[in-house]
Amino acid sequence: MVDPSESANSRRFGIESFYCRPGIEGAHEKGGVEGQIGYHRRNHFVPVPEVSSLAELNEMVEQWDRQDDARRIGSRSKTIAECFALEQPLLRPLPDEPFETGRLFTPWVDRYGQIPVRTNR
Would you say 73 and 80 are in contact if contact means Cβ atoms under 8 Å apart? Predict the structure, then answer.
């Protein structure tokens, strides 16, 4: 079932959400994305950085991003920055209106000690 607000957001912001290309042609995509998330976690967040403010953490993340621009993923011939430079002209501009990235719930604990949120417990 499609959430009506999600389809309205899709029309308003010109996005189509998908996790990877379906079928055989997209079978390689998920592991690559998850692998890069693991790379960042292991190389930047283990051990957990000790900072005195969110601003300090954000500066650290920006520094890591700048360092990663020179990195090559696997045996690719181009760096992350070079690949992004090729892709950047294809990206659409951000919309003027804000995009709600979360939902506010007022959960309650049922008699089994579970908290239902939409279709999950």
Answer: yes
User: Which amino acid, 94?
Assistant: L
Look up residue 14 and give its two tokens. Answer: 């010109």
Strand, helix or coil for residue 48: coil
DSSP state for residue 88 in the 8-state scheme: G
Q: What is the pLDDT of residues 23-73, one digit of tens each?
A: 777 766 667 777 888 888 999 999 999 999 999 999 999 999 999 999 998
Of the candidates 86, 91, 88, which has an alpha carbon nearest to the alpha carbon of residue 14? 91
CA distance 41 to 43: 6
The CA distance from 17 to 4, in Å, is 14
Q: Which residues does 43 contact at the CB level (< 8 Å), separation at least 6?
A: 64
